[in-house]
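dumping this here before i forget
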Amino acid sequence: MKTPSGTSVGVDDPYEHVERCDHLTDNGRCRYAAEYARHDPEFAAERRADDLRCPAADPEGKWEWRDCPHFRARQRSRECIRCGLAEVRLANAEARDTRPLLEEHHLSYHDAPEADMDHEITVYLCRWCHAKVHQSWARVDDDASPDPEAVAAKEERRAREQAETGFETAAERFDTGDEE
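structure:
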């Protein structure tokens, strides 16, 4: 598959990387039909007639994920699906100016010629794997290790995170050098 601008997304079939639909409840019901019925009343009425059961999640159902007009799947775990690098978030003012380790990577694009629906399938890739995938030579499902630069960036963040959690008294933080 390709993006609308023609770069690779690193997969042949985005649905192979789907765990479940974001609208699916734990008991197999369609949350979209229940909460957003006004957006597609016909779809909601069909789902309500079947007790909101998701036909794609039902083992005996007649749908695949790709058959649902409102399917959406975003990766929940905050780690690169290619190399396994986990996100380390900074929780201070510095975080606003720091580029994240992980970036969302869209496996499906509704503007792409191969796409027939407006399905969002999004995973996380570290920014190093993300660049490799879009440069067309790497695949999302490659057996990859984190890039050395990625490991260094993660460890630097972890060190800053640990420094932030260290205890420092107010007197130490605001020492003005005025001693009595």
